[in-house]
Specification:
The complex is a heterodimer of chains A (269) and B (323). Chain A is an alpha/beta fold and 269 residues long. Chain A contains seven helices and 17 strands. Chain B has one domain: Alpha-Beta Barrel (TIM Barrel). The chains are: A alpha/beta (269), B alpha/beta (323). Chains A and B meet through strand 4, strand 6 and strand 14 of A and helix 2, strand 5, strand 6 and helix 9 of B.
Chain lengths: 269, 323
């Protein structure tokens, strides 16, 4: 029988507590509230009259999001000041799952994908799971959350494409070095970043026989698993993801290859 | 010996298994439940997954002539009694849509939904489907006349008005030999007349139901309408009594089959819709309320309800509420 229905993810509104610039393009907004949620879950953030976009959760207490200024909604969010109102629905989707008995984990982040991994590292470390991090970006100024990561990880390694900070090259080189290092070999790898990087990490972990969870991105609209916009091989990324087991992701033809635009048309990645 | 055989036959009839399969224009459906247009119908893989999770037939998201991005978000929000949506017909357009859904191989029949701005566009869309119907392997075309929240389409273009609904149905009928389902609206008066005129114009079935509205929700913390398009269509439990009444009235007025779509969340809801006169039942928002395996749950509830009461066939339920 159908029971009287109470909204599961109502629109919530909180005040902005603090705003910090991470890099030229990225701002971090802390709200004056906390949220019961898992690292890897996301919010649908609403700017009335403009639109709604999925944003990963960078911290639960205080509830924090990091926003790259890339479009109409994010540019409005960049204008928010302490005391401004911010509205969101969530938490939505499935987060990263750290299994009992995993004593050491590795998080690998590319670009803006680092934000949810900070939240994961914080939670894992507070649960006595030794956490290593490899984070990469194009150049030194695009690296976000580096200082915060040092506080919540045993070791953090930075890479940049141009060598302007940390090791020159891709996060993959550093990640592979850690997987091959007997003393540092993690029980599992957690990754968030550009899809080609997710594909490379998934394959790397398969090769090294290490469990791996990756966070994927698609064009999310409803966030409720209904509209089908964020389709990935028949799955709804907003409801079945955004975190997928790497083996499941590798079984999906579209993974690393194609995505849907706002109309649903297929586009190459 | 003869007596023995007779006794055996008697037992067989009593033990005749419950069969809830149906047919849709000659194609077998494992149950009477159709995935309604607009939910998870963007990709073929998405529809295949819904079929695996129990739907008897699948309807694509409506395809229009040109690609459409749809409305800004929020596009779907919860209410205390259902969902309010204003998706705005996002779709890749008829060309990409046909390519997407071509080669349907599953046993569950596929229904292609089309949305045009006027008879000409509908006719053109129908002609495109007619050209590709072999590769599409679809069972029917559904003409969306009833979307309550997209300028230029559906209610906002007066398409659910009886005369217009009839004209559009005739225009589609002229262009395709596929069975044509006219999808009508519970939101405007004249739905019974619209069903009659659609039947007269050659519709093969009526799908009575769409989201109801337009309605609106206002976020009181921000003092603004919640949906990106400000208003949208209500679906879910709140609208079931209206859909049931519309189906009841249309069942009396037409001879073609009626599909009842709107507010079905459980097996009991589906049975209510059948009793009102629906031959088949559309399911949409239940995918949210009941989860991705909503169809299996609804089918299971139908089966146990029917079993407890000794029903063997869905036909025994269709229209029983009528005198």
């Amino acid at each position: 029988m159908t029971e009287i229905f109470v909204p599961k993810v109502p629109m919530q509104t909180a005040r902005v507590g603090r705003v910090a610039s991470e890099s030229g393009k990225v701002k971090t907004i802390e709200l004056d509230t906390r949220l019961v949620c898992e690292p890897g879950q996301f919010l649908m953030v609403w700017v009335p009259g403009v639109g709604e976009r999925p944003m990963s959760i960078a911290n639960n207490d205080p509830l924090t999001i990091s926003i790259a200024n890339v479009g109409s909604v994010s540019s409005e969010l960049h204008r928010l000041k302490p005391g401004s109102l911010l509205s969101f629905r969530g938490p939505l989707g499935n987060g990263f799952k750290v299994q009992d008995g995993w004593k050491r984990i590795l998080v690998v982040g590319g670009g803006y994908g680092v934000a949810p991994l900070y939240f994961l590292a914080k939670m894992a470390t507070s649960n006595d799971v030794e956490t290593l991090a490899v984070v990469g970006a194009r150049t030194a100024k695009d690296i976000i959350y580096e200082d915060k990561l040092y506080l919540v990880t045993a070791e953090t390694f930075v890479t940049t494409d141009d060598g302007s900070k940390g090791a020159k090259g891709s996060v993959m080189v550093e990640a592979e070095r850690l997987l091959a290092d007997r003393k540092r070999r993690p029980a599992a790898v957690f990754a968030c970043g550009p899809e080609r990087m997710m594909l490379a990490i998934a394959r790397l972990c398969l090769k090294h026989e290490i469990p791996c969870q990756i966070s994927l991105e698609r064009h999310m609209k409803c966030g409720l698993g209904l509209c089908g916009s964020c389709d990935l091989g028949g799955r709804s990324v907003c409801r079945d993801g955004p975190v997928f087991d790497a083996l499941e992701a590798l079984s999906i033809k579209e993974f690393g290859e194609s995505r849907r635009d706002a109309s649903g048309a297929r586009k190459s990645i | 010996m003869i007596l023995f055989i007779m006794v055996e036959m008697e037992i067989r009839t009593v033990n005749m298994p419950l069969d809830i399969s149906r047919t849709l224009f000659g194609k077998r459906m494992k149950n009477p439940l159709i995935l309604a247009s607009g939910v998870l119908g963007v990709t073929r893989a998405g529809l295949e997954r819904v079929a695996e999770s129990g739907a008897g037939a699948l309807t694509t998201k409506s395809l229009s002539l040109e690609p459409r991005k749809g409305h800004e978000g929020p596009i779907i929000i919860e209410t205390e009694c259902g969902l309010l949506n204003a998706v705005g017909y996002s779709n890749p357009g008829i060309g990409d849509g046909i390519a997407e859904f071509s080669g349907w191989k599953r046993d569950e029949p596929l229904i292609i939904s089309i949305a045009g701005k006027d008879e000409k566009e509908f006719a053109h869309l129908a002609a495109r489907l007619e050209q590709s119907k072999k590769t599409l392997n679809c069972a029917a075309v559904e003409i969306a006349l009833s979307c309550p929240h997209t300028p230029g389409f559906g209610l906002m273009a007066g398409q659910a008005d009886p005369k217009t609904a009839g004209k559009i149905t005739a225009a589609v009928r002229d262009e395709t030999k596929l069975p044509v389902i006219a999808k009508l609206s519970p939101s405007v008066p004249g739905e019974v007349e619209a069903a009659r005129l659609a039947e007269k114009a050659g519709a093969s079935a009526i799908n009575m139901g769409n989201s109801l509205g337009p309605g609106m929700r206002i976020d009181i913390n921000r003092g603004k309408p919640l949906l990106g398009f400000r208003m949208g269509g209500l679906s879910g439990p709140a609208i079931k009594p209206i859909t049931v009444r519309c189906v009841y009235d249309i069942y009396d007025a037409v001879d073609i089959p009626v599909i009842g779509t709107g507010g079905v969340n459980s097996g009991q809801d589906a049975i209510e819709m059948l009793m009102a006169g629906a031959s088949l039942v559309g399911v949409g928002s239940a995918v949210y309320f009941r989860g991705p395996d909503a169809f299996m749950k609804i089918e299971g509830e139908m089966r146990s309800w029917m079993k407890e009461r000794g029903y063997k066939r869905v036909d025994e339920l269709v229209g029983v509420a009528h005198d």
